[in-house]
Design a protein that fits this description.
13 strands, binds zinc ion, porphyrin biosynthesis, zinc ion binding, eleven-stranded mixed β-sheet, zinc, binds 5-azanyl-4-oxidanylidene-pentanoic acid, TIM Barrel, 11 helices, alpha/beta
């Protein structure tokens, strides 16, 4: 060979010059409908449908508008949703009583959604912040999180959603030991083999939740969530939180937000390869990607982002883009 610096064993391009070969070089990164979960906002007012001003193409629905919208998505392949309840007339109080009262919109909607869409997997976000007068995710005593009271209450709310028919309860509150308390409550009520627990195990105190908090009106009245959500720089606490939740029986783990935290995704997947891992692509990520270009340009950014999340170890991505992703997948087939 005349160009002595060229070496055959260092030529990689021979392995990916064709689209089919490139697919083999990207194992376990495909996006199919079961890799996507759609978060939905549910209002008390049955016939309401309100655009969310901070999130283009996202709506808050009453049950009578939600079911037709979901039916259309299920027809296009949607397989799972994550429900967030919003109260406007029910009272907010220090213990978040409206989270599991019989009039709670989630509790009322669960049997109706299951009847209309029996194959759809329904996860319920479990937290107190949409229902507490102070807006914190747990119960406060003298202004600080009361650990045992908070855990007890989170387990009670989880059980109420499980009894109402949720397939998955997903505690997002970040109170230590809640997974064991929820699993115990499911056991005591013989629901342990009918309901899974998706732990928001590695949820960071991120500044990327802004549009969501506008939507949910769930910002704390005073203070912030830094004493329970994880510090964004701490991979150590994320590792310990995932280990704790695995030990307490979590069925599924989560990293939230997604894109800036892919190192945490990889770390968690490497340590717990046998636990399906979720990413929550949060409202701030949604806003950033929405502004990344027009039409197919933005769609390419979105799909690359999802591919990279899969490469990092995510099995399922919770994303407000679910309807658009189903469209994109339909175009490809
Ligand atoms: N517990 C759910 C969230 O906090 C969601 C945040 C977001 O989408 O920004
Ligand atoms: Zn909360
Ligand atoms: Zn939250």
């Amino acid at each position: 060979m005349s160009d002595l610096f060229l070496s055959p064993e260092h030529v990689l391009q021979g392995g990916y010059f064709h689209a089919t070969l490139r697919k083999l070089q990207e194992p376990n990164t495909s996006i199919e409908p079961h890799n996507i979960m759609y978060p939905v906002f549910l209002l008390e007012d049955k016939d309401a449908m309100q655009a969310v001003s901070s999130m283009p193409n996202v709506y808050r629905y009453g049950i009578n508008k939600l079911i037709p919208a979901l039916t259309e998505l299920v027809d296009r392949g949607l397989q799972s949703i994550l429900i967030f309840g919003i109260v406007e007339t029910l009272p907010k109080d220090p213990t978040g009583s409206s989270a599991d009262c019989p009039e709670n919109p989630v509790i009322k909607a669960l049997p109706k959604i299951k009847e209309a869409l029996p194959n759809l997997v329904i996860a319920c976000d479990v937290c107190l912040c949409p229902y507490t007068s102070h807006g914190h995710c747990g119960i406060l005593t003298n202004g600080a999180i009361d650990h045992p009271e908070s855990v007890k209450r989170i387990a009670e709310v989880s059980l109420a959603y499980a009894k109402a028919g949720a397939h998955i309860v997903a505690p997002s509150d970040m109170m230590d030991n809640r997974i064991k308390a929820i699993k115990d409550a499911l056991f005591e009520n013989k629901l342990q083999n009918q309901v899974s627990v998706l732990s928001y195990s590695c949820k960071f105190a991120s500044s990327m939740y802004g549009p969501f908090r506008d939507t949910m009106k769930s910002s704390p009245m005073a203070g912030d969530r830094k004493c329970y959500q994880l510090p964004p720089g701490s991979s150590g606490l994320a590792a310990r939180a995932a280990a704790r939740d695995v030990a307490e029986g979590a069925d599924f783990l989560m990293v939230k937000p997604g894109l800036p935290y892919l190192d945490i995704v990889r770390q968690t997947k490497d340590r717990y390869p046998n636990h399906p891992l979720f990413i929550y692509q949060v409202s701030g990520e949604y806003a950033m990607i929405s502004k990344s270009g027009e039409g197919s340009e933005m769609e390419a950014v979105l799909m690359e982002t999802l591919l990279c999340m899969r490469r990092a170890g995510a099995d399922c991505i919770i994303t407000y883009f679910a309807p658009l992703i189903l469209n994109i997948l339909a175009k490809k087939h």
